[in-house]
Specification:
Blueprint lengths: L6 E4 L5 H10 L5 E3 L1 H8 L5 E6 L8 E9 L2 E4 L2 E3 L7 H23 L2 E4 L6 H5 L1 H13 L9 H16 L6 H10 L4 H22 L1
Antiparallel strand pairs: 1-5, 1-7, 2-3, 3-4, 4-5, 4-6
């Protein structure tokens, strides 16, 4: 399943300020440093290094910021559209990949800075856990997708998934679960209904374990 890519920067002893200055000095169009946005972050008590990509025929104008994660580790938490209302997964990932490849990597290679980018793909097991992923796939493959979990056999398979998912200690994002259900062939309406059932089952199990 598609997801937004993440970029992590580990500066070690080099220092983030010097690294960002080196990146800024090497910037080429369509990328620029967005100093005015950095001033805004100071009022929130955070340090941020902001950049902007000018839109072109393939990608809209967008900005991104580098924030501290912990110690010498920094990351890009989001890519924000400047003109468009919302970026698609493809647009978001293309923009952050372009920044990673054209702006960060050349400087990182010169100064021995570790920079990583995630794949932009989530496996089913990463979303719900290994055993729950198998149970969910079995449910989706066998269920009547016009009746949700109403049929007794489908209901049993669905409940087996809920119990396995909620007792495996995985922190399941219900937004990701909804998208995963849609990817497995469920309509948006039934996916939402199933997520609501999952949330109720999760709360019930937590209450029983309390």
């Amino acid at each position: 399943m598609k997801t937004f890519k993440d970029v992590f920067i580990r500066v070690g002893d080099a220092g983030i300020v010097d690294y960002i200055e080196n990146v800024t000095n090497e910037l080429k169009k369509p990328w620029t440093r967005a100093y005015i946005n950095e001033e805004s972050s100071k009022y929130l008590g955070e340090v941020a290094f902001c950049f902007q990509r000018e839109g072109d025929s393939t990608l809209p104008t967008a900005g991104l910021s580098i924030f501290q994660k912990d110690g010498n580790s920094w990351y890009i938490p989001n890519v924000v559209p400047i003109e468009a209302g919302q970026l698609s997964y493809e647009e978001y990932n293309e923009i952050i990949t372009d920044f990673y490849e054209s702006c960060l990597m050349p400087v990182s290679a010169q100064h021995g800075i570790a920079v990583e980018i995630s794949t932009g793909e989530l496996k089913d097991e990463e979303i719900v856990g290994e055993t729950p992923a198998k149970l969910l796939k079995a449910f989706s493959n066998c269920a009547n997708k016009s009746t949700g979990s109403a049929h007794p056999s489908d209901r049993n398979r669905w409940l087996e998934f809920i119990v396995a998912a909620c007792t495996s200690k995985n922190d399941i994002d219900t937004g990701d679960l909804k998208r995963l259900l849609q990817q497995q062939g469920w309509s948006e309406e039934f996916s939402l209904d199933l997520v609501i059932e999952f949330e109720f089952g999760r709360d019930l199990i937590k209450h029983m374990e309390a």
